[in-house]
Write a structure and sequence with these properties.
With about 70 residues, the protein is mainly alpha-helical. It is built from 2 helices and 2 strands, in the order ββαα. The protein has one domain. A hairpin with a 5-residue loop joins strand 1 and strand 2.
Length: about 70
Amino acid sequence: MKKVKSRYVIDEKGKKLSVILSLLEYSKLLETIEELEDSLELEKAEREAIGFTDYMKFREELKTQGLL
């Protein structure tokens, strides 16, 4: 990951209150968070999966039920 120069908003005593990000940095940060969330969801689904249905079999079942 690219190193970002940290910029802060501080109060009169020098306490950091906020972080300043460019729109590009902010967008990249959101994208990274979304990718991590997706990865965690996939891992959870794999752990909790009881079994999988073949895609073609699944399509046939949907057709039989009139859903496809």
